[in-house]
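INFO  loader      accepted 1 record
INFO  loader      residues=93
INFO  predictor   begin
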Amino acid sequence: MRTVYSAADAYTTAIDWKPHAMLLDIGLPDTDGYALARRLREQKALAGTFLIALTGYGQSADKERAREAGFDDHVVKPADIDHLLRVLRKVSR
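INFO  predictor   done
INFO  writer      dumping tokens
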């Protein structure tokens, strides 16, 4: 597991590490998580990375925007840990 605090660091870490899954906050200090997800999806080496939006935005339009940006799942803060664990179990298969 790796923890970073900016979109730039998340992008660099993903390129170097090629994780199976990433939890991305939408409200990042240097850019939003939607832009980061789109940028990550442009990388062929990260095609299999499961992207989870972790956000305070939980309306239907927010979920659709996350899907359009390339997220595979959408978790609203405060995160339901049981839901998050179910999502992560799908990724670990």
